[in-house]
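Re: Re: ligand-bound prediction request (bumping)

Still looking for help on this. To restate: I need the protein modeled with D-glutamic acid bound, output as structure tokens. Inputs repeated here so nobody has to scroll up.
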Amino acid sequence: MNRRPVLMFDSGIGGLTVLREARVLMPDRRFVYVADDAAFPYGAWDEQALNAHVVELFGRLLAAHDPDVAVIACNTASTLVLSNLRSAYPDTPFVGTVPAIKPAAERTASGLVSVLATPGTVKRQYTRDLIREWAARCHVRLVGSDRLATLAEAYMREGFVDEEAVRAEIEPCFVEQDGRRTDIVVLACTHYPFLVNRMRKTAPWPVDWLDPAEAIARRALSLLAGSPALATRPDRLDPQGDDIAIFTSNAADPATRRLMQGFGLSVMEAMTV
Ligand code: DGL
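Reply:
Sorry for the wait, this slipped through. Here it is.
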């Protein structure tokens, strides 16, 4: 008996913020977590190259793991590649992660919202279109951070982060205008929720930090409704059981393995994609 997994994908460990929500909602499901760490960070990639890279990689991932649903737990990839993945692999349901601009626009009281993301997500047409469509009445500041995803990677492995660096990265999110202040910061990179306590601590004033992880997990669950958690697929890899993590570098160090263990994932020794 084999269980078709939910495939959770990110450039690094950021997708774990979505995985932990998905586990709560889908305790019976098996998860395959894929970190494309060989290509991390996605934030700095040229758009065409990243597109081709992710579409090609998914050809191998889908063939190897045959997921029931694939969650792109990465804004930088989703805002660029999602529609291409759907057309390249029409048999696989994909769930994307895109900046939570619509809920932010609905919730803000001051009308000043900031979107904190990688430089890639900030410059996407997709992100601009979301703002035009859903937040035309707000003042939206896009803040591209070069360092936060890498800081989150280090923090999760080493337990230490330079708070001054976090403070400097989030500072441009805080706007004061005509007596009003930013009241919502959209965490538009799945790595950032890991640093949210440090962000709270170093922020100049309290704001709502919007993390879309639960909404993404709910969307994945809704696509799985009707698909049983157990299915007979004896021809597939990872024939039974445990949730696994794959690192495309195939070079996860001991700290990374420990981190993954903490999330209930065993790192596969050999790259199978
Ligand atoms: N976790 C990714 C995201 O949600 C980005 C990290 C990276 O730059 O690769 O955008």
